[in-house]
Amino acid sequence: MTTDIEAVAQPSDAFAAGKKRADDTAFMLDRVLTEMGIRVGDRDSWPQLQGRASLSGEPYVYLGTVPMATVRKLIDALIYAHSAKRAR
Question: What's the CA gap between 62 and 50, in Å, rounded?
């Protein structure tokens, strides 16, 4: 049997763990984008990227609105990576 305090702490622990995983993923994505020459926080490149979590602790990454030129650059990189993988 859990106490009232433990019952309240469990969802907040799940949220904190989910938020941490989402922040870590957003950080890794930021590093990859930087390597590709895409600057997160730049209005013309990639304005917003944040790690978030639902109250249940489910992590997700909020990408914000991405300009079309950046989307095309990502699509080209993904197509190239896929074709290079298939060529092996």
Answer: 5
Give pLDDT tens digits for 20-76: 999 999 999 999 999 999 999 999 999 999 999 998 899 999 999 999 999 999 999
Check the CA dihedral 39-42-44-49 and report its sign. Answer: positive
Asked whether the beta carbons of 2 and 11 are under 8 A apart, the reply is no
What is the model's pLDDT at position 56? 87
Task: List the structure tokens of 76.
Answer: 């080209």
* Residue owning tokens 């969802």: 11
- At 37 the three-state DSSP class reads coil
Of 74, 25, 19, 21, nearest to 46 (Cα)?
74
Give the separation between CA 80 and CA 46, rounded to whole angstroms.
21
